[in-house]
Write a structure and sequence with these properties.
Subunit structure: Homodimer.
Active site: 30, 78
Function: Catalyzes the condensation of isopentenyl diphosphate (IPP) with allylic pyrophosphates generating different type of terpenoids.
Number of domains: 1
Largest sheet: 6 strands, parallel
EC number: 2.5.1.-
Strand order of the largest sheet: 3-4-2-1-5-6
Helix content: 40-55%
Keywords: Magnesium, Metal-binding, Transferase
Bound molecules: 3-methylbut-3-enyl trihydrogen diphosphate, magnesium ion
Number of helices: 9
Oligomer: single chain
Order of helices and strands: HEHHEHHEHEHHEEH
Distance between the termini: 53 Å
Length: 257
């Protein structure tokens, strides 16, 4: 079912230029724990609030007609956290996957996941797989969750895949180019992110989409993820609209040598 919204009108009403929106937005949703601790609450309260913000952000992307939103939900390094927090995050993820079914259907969202499956509890994997297959034919926003995701692990897995193809005699090493590598990553077939948003102020990429963000525009806000509301999101989009993306070339040839 097509989305009932008119994204162009919606973007204009929000003060955004519909022709200058990013097509793929990646987000490092950081600062849930700090948000909670600053309010004298346990860290998990921040994760709970964070799930509501995910819902609001996904809805805004649908309204704006964004092609893809890729959210960093759980990194390959987050297993280092106390077991109680990891268990809470896994059960929250399962609840989120169940709760979002109506939104996925109503907004025509295609749901996907990137990351390694090992270590993810079976009941979470089952809900993930259900949402992936139930939404496979949808044509609206692609919502991609990075779960047990690490950029280096992804590159390791891609190298193994290509090495296997070489061993089977299906690929000559001299044929390997950037497209082969992109096609061997978890994100095969997806366009690279145009905009990478990080909340909670850290100036690092924390092993997120290392290959894919080569030319993404970076936008960092000091606000913690639970405080990332629609107005902050629109500020990021408006800032992106004013960026001059050169990809190593020149913005214009005036004044060239
Ligand atoms: C982001 O918030 C959520 C996850 C990494 C799962 P954090 O839990 O990292 O919160 P801070 O950075 O400790 O405040
Ligand atoms: C990045 O946040 C991972 C997610 C948002 C899921 P972290 O809190 O794990 O990153 P660092 O430890 O500050 O680099
Ligand atoms: Mg953090």
């Amino acid at each position: 079912m097509p989305s009932p919204h008119d994204p162009v009108q919606y973007a204009r009403a929000a003060g955004l230029d519909p022709d200058r929106l990013p097509r793929h937005i990646a987000v490092i949703m950081d600062g849930n724990g700090r948000w909670a601790v600053e309010r004298g609450k346990p860290r998990v309260e921040g994760h709970l609030r964070g799930a509501d913000v995910v819902r609001a952000t996904v809805t805004e992307c649908c309204k704006l007609g964004i092609d893809q939103l890729t959210l960093y939900c759980f990194s390959a390094e987050n297993w280092k956290r106390p077991k109680a927090e990891v268990d809470f995050l896994m059960s929250l993820l399962k609840q989120y996957l169940l709760d979002e079914r109506d939104l996925i259907r109503d907004e025509n969202i295609r749901f996907t996941v990137i990351g390694r499956r090992d270590g993810i509890p079976d009941d979470v994997l089952a809900e993930m797989d259900h949402n992936i297959s139930a939404s496979a034919g949808n044509t609206g926003l692609t919502l991609c969750l990075a779960i047990n995701y690490g950029g280096r692990t992804e590159i390791v897995d891609a190298v193994r895949k290509l090495a296997e193809e070489v061993r089977r005699g299906e690929l000559d090493p001299s044929q390997i180019d950037e497209d082969h590598i992109s096609g061997a990553l978890y994100t095969a077939g997806m366009r690279d992110p145009d905009l990478l948003i990080r909340t909670a102020g850290e100036m690092r990429v924390s092993n997120y989409l290392l290959w894919q963000i080569s030319y993404a525009e970076l936008w960092v806000t000091p606000k913690c993820w639970p405080d990332f509301d629609v107005s902050v999101f629109r500020a990021a989009l408006s800032d992106f609209a004013g960026r001059n993306r050169r990809f190593g070339g020149l913005a214009n040839v005036q004044g060239a040598v």
